[in-house]
């Protein structure tokens, strides 16, 4: 895949409607799928998200970069409504985020999330971790959920671990199970919050490889990561955050070679010297 070209058309490409009223701030790859408009949030006196405008197109891969404490995790959590917002709007596929109940469970299925700390159910097997959501939320029958679950575990390379418990797996394997669990819901978008930061270095690539292949298959992804190799290989766009604001956004090559803002230049000089 070229860095300037978009990923291949996803399964839903071309089936939606143009939404000329969406307040897109950058050119998305497909039609707008995730749209944040004027999003504001405080934690007490801390203005953690300040007038965030971000449109993620269907099939687009957006990497979010920025110093610790800049609001990256809060941004992801807001898209999944793990955090509420005080101002602005967030829509997924044109629908505002539901507030509670079944609709909220449905949203969390449509918007997968992969955390730094895996967050698997410790008392359930790998396969049960992957089938639970489809059975409970999507009402898939158990046999079908197991069949699909095995298929997805195979896709991320951990099908041979299906009957084990998370603690019996390496960190890299656990994170691939967490990705499989998100995929099993057939999500519209997957949010990744520093998915490789808790891994031993030798396990980082096995997880990034899965993510790169998802990107190439047209999955819409928002990825908080400092892995520049991943950004260069898979991202359509890099969004740089600092102090609760989106300071800069650009294609990865442009961002890494010619960052415009002093904040981004300073941030890159720090991560590049490691
Ligand atoms: N639940 C919370 N209550 C109060 N402050 C929080 C909470 N979650 C995050 N923060 C603060 O909000 C800021 C942004 O946090 P976060 O979104 O986790 O940043 P990042 O992921 O970029 O490191 C930090 O200063 C953090 O301490
Ligand atoms: Mg964070």
TrEMBL record:
Gene Ontology cellular component list: plasma membrane
Membrane topology: Peripheral membrane protein
Subcellular location(s) of the protein: Cell membrane
Recorded GO MF terms: ATP binding; ATP hydrolysis activity; ATPase-coupled polar amino acid-transporter activity
InterPro entries linked to this entry: AAA+_ATPase, ABC_ATPase_HisP-typ, ABC_transporter-like_ATP-bd, ABC_transporter-like_CS, MetN_ABC_transporter-like, P-loop_NTPase
EC number of this enzyme: 7.4.2.1
Disordered: region residues: 1-25
Protein name: ABC-type polar-amino-acid transporter
């Amino acid at each position: 895949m070229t860095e300037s070209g978009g990923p291949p058309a996803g399964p839903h490409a071309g089936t939606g409607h143009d939404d000329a009223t969406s307040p897109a701030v950058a050119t998305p790859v497909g039609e707008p799928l995730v749209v944040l408009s004027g999003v504001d949030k405080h934690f007490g006196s801390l203005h953690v998200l300040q007038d965030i405008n971000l449109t993620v197109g269907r099939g687009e891969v957006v990497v979010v970069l920025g110093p610790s404490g800049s609001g990256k995790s809060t941004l992801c959590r807001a898209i999944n409504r793990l955090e509420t917002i005080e101002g602005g709007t967030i829509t997924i596929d044109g629908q505002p985020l539901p507030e509670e109940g079944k609709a909220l469970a449905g949203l969390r299925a449509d918007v997968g999330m992969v955390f730094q700390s895996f967050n698997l159910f410790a008392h359930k097997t790998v396969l049960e971790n992957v089938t639970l959501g489809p059975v409970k939320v999507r009402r898939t029958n158990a046999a079908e959920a197991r069949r699909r679950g095995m298929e997805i575990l195979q896709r991320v390379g951990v099908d041979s671990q299906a009957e084990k418990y998370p603690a019996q797996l390496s960190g890299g394997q656990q994170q691939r199970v967490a990705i499989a669990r998100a995929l099993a819901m057939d999500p519209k978008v997957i949010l990744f919050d520093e998915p490789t930061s808790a891994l031993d270095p030798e396990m980082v690539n096995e997880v990034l490889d899965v993510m790169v292949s998802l990107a190439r298959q047209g999955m819409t992804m928002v990825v908080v990561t400092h892995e520049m190799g991943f950004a260069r290989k898979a991202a359509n766009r890099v969004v740089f955050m600092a102090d609760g604001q989106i300071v800069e956004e650009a294609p990865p090559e442009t961002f890494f070679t010619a960052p415009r803002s002093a904040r981004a230049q300073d941030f890159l000089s720090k991560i590049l010297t490691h």
